[in-house]
Amino acid sequence: MTYPKLPGLTWDGTIYENDEMGTLEALLPTGGYPTAHAPAMAELPDGSLLCCWFAGTYEGSADIHIVCSILPKDKTAWTEPVNISGDPQRSEQNPSLFYGPDHAVWAMYTAQLDRQAGKDNMQYTAVVRCQKSTDGGRTWGPYETVFPEEGTFCRQPIQVLSNGRWIFSNWLCTDSEEGLSGDPTAFRISDDEGKTWRMVHMPKSNGHVHANVVELEPGHLAAFMRNREAYRIHRSESFDWGETWSVPQPTPLPNNNSSISAVKLQSGRVAIAYNPTCTPDPKPGKAAWPGLRCPVAVALSEDGGLTFPIIRWMERGEGFVGEENKTNNRQYEYPYLMQGKDGMLHLTYAARTRQGIKYIRFKETDVLGEKREKIGLYNPTAAQTR
Fold first, then answer.
1. Are 253 and 231 in contact, with CB atoms under 8 Å apart?
2. Contact present, 211 and 200 (Cβ < 8 Å)
3. For the chain, what percent of residues have pLDDT higher than 90?
4. Potential cystine with 62: which of 94, 114, 210, 220 (Cβ 3.0-4.6 Å)?
């Protein structure tokens, strides 16, 4: 398939070829909304891609709702987004997409009450809802509140483990003086395809959120988390299909208290998309907001997420570098990373300080390097058993 060459990238969804980066890129149509944030993707059985995000005036306001754009298979442009949700009393945020056993696309998202006087953060009122599409994301049915416990937040889609178990990462928000500093991680587990759920907690996980679960080998899971101290991406392990978890420990990857996305690739490597920045002076137990959310990098691990020797910047923003210039870059944040059935990697994130959503398509070797792949330095079987 032939794509036009950069320069280009207008907000019409057209996919362009970036010769310098070796990638395909697009700016998704905005639908006329002033802000866009927290994208998520899914691949449908026919090869089409869906991308959803939350759009409206300002995060936390009642006009924020979920929208969805489609990249039909063998097409070269994303469609104008259609509305999924629209509760006039709640801010609907952090969507994820899951292709269910009922052959419907499930859009799971949070719904929190509108802002109130004196309350900047209403996440402690959030519930988790689900809406479904049976026509590939073109139209959506009414919502069902799946998790009505207030304060429940989510980001990663439902993960299906090799034994058929479903696991859905949450963190639990409270109305406390510490605000967002102490949110702990918990998981919803279902052994009957979502008919019933139970919750397990991660010990000493306060301030560790946005858990991304990957199954390293049957029953052996790793969860990678955003750190409220803006220090490092943290990692926890489970060896019993998610029943119990270890205390989170820092990885080598910096974290700026912004969302991350982790996935196990077909090669066996773990890939994480993130902003490679952090606060220089983290305070234990205190949330920090450095604000610097550029560049967007993808890091590869060959030992289940303990080390990440291979890192590439996939988004360089406006290109400013150095301490004096780094804040001149706009924000490129909240990446979502997935791998298609054909092995291609798909990355989306909020771009140009939430002006819209950017999409990038590339190969694992675009991060890894063709030479390293060809000489076979990685044995995935050995790496997974370390």
1. no
2. no
3. 86
4. 114
